[in-house]
């Protein structure tokens, strides 16, 4: 079901945050037009050379590309014409840039009172950090999330983007809420989202623990409380186990790991004891799991109904039978760039997740098509 069928979205942004938000809206059926500089477009296009990198492809399916030089009067005039016909404008420009382009909220609202303008920034539009440049690692660090992941003795950065993606998701649901409200008010809204607060809002538990107990959580606090481990098997492959609080999962685990004596060990006799002695229990489990290959432990954990999963690499995710059964990935074909792997919308509505299946556009691919369809002369 295309629940946003007929909604016109302009995306004025680059890299991940705004493009991810735009892609989510496109997956819901919106007509998302990506506004790009004719000289190279979204910098993600050339991330690994050329103008159609894997990084660009990942965040730009089901969109159309229009090139406009916003440093020229003609480019700004054409964009304003598109804005007059749009429902949503998304940008992730630094504070003040859109105003310098003559596209501040007062101008936009006068041109199109029903327009929803969502502006995504690193740190918001007020405060001492307002004008600082921000990327994912910067926001993740400032939010406190990175401190919950790093080994303080060897603080090596690892993993994928989190701040960019979370801010994109936050922007998407705020835009959906504004579209819903507009149905009754008939008035557009200015929506402001920043990476810093989007991240903080995603892990409120750590702040509640500090407020109520005075405890600053570290990288082991949550793992100990949730009774979670990553354990290396004899063949070098890794398992993740998460027992949480039900006693039955602890009992199932000691049976699966063939160590019933752990259930009567006074160090681990209650959940709170296991939390208190988390590192000691971790050492015990690591020694056990290191004796057999992962396939053996997978069989045992399945048989004993323990919450677990193999720690997959990207290729293993694509090949996983559950992922394949869900149809999570699909292939689409660009007429110039060829076969492209894409990720399906992870939400079903009335059993359907229909999409346009439009491959990520080449730079300026839809200039004439969009300007004609939106009633604007090129």
Core attributes:
alpha/beta; Rossmann fold; 378 residues; formyl-coa transferase, domain 3; 3-stranded antiparallel β-sheet
- What pattern of helices and strands is seen along the backbone? EHEHEHEHHEHHEHHHEEHHHHHEHHEEH
- CATH superfamily membership of the largest domain: Crotonobetainyl-coa:carnitine coa-transferase, domain 1
The strand count comes to: 11
Strand order of the largest sheet: 3-2-1-4-5-6
Gross geometry: elongated
CATH topology assignment of the largest domain:
Rossmann fold
**Beta strand %:** 5-15%
What would the average pLDDT be, to the nearest integer?
Answer: 95
Structural class: alpha/beta
Helix count equals 18
Spans of at least 5 consecutive residues whose pLDDT stays below 50 are none
Q: Kindly, what is the distance between the CA atoms of the first and last residues, rounded to a whole number of angstroms?
A: 33 Å
Provide the CATH architecture of the largest domain. 3-Layer(aba) Sandwich
Alpha-carbon Rg, integer: 25 Å
Largest sheet: 6 strands, parallel
Indicate how many domains the architecture comprises.
Answer: 2
Highest-level CATH class of the largest domain? Alpha Beta
> Helical residue percent?
40-55%
Walk me through what this model shows:
The two termini are 33 Å apart. 31% of the residues are buried. The chain has 378 residues and is an alpha/beta fold. The longest helix has 23 residues, at 163-185. It has 2 domains: 8-202 and 348-373, Rossmann fold; 238-310, formyl-coa transferase, domain 3. The radius of gyration is 25 Å and the shape is elongated. It contains 18 helices and 11 strands. Strands 3-2-1-4-5-6 form a 6-stranded parallel beta sheet, with helices on both faces. A 3-stranded antiparallel beta sheet has the order 7-8-9. A two-stranded antiparallel sheet has the order 10-11.
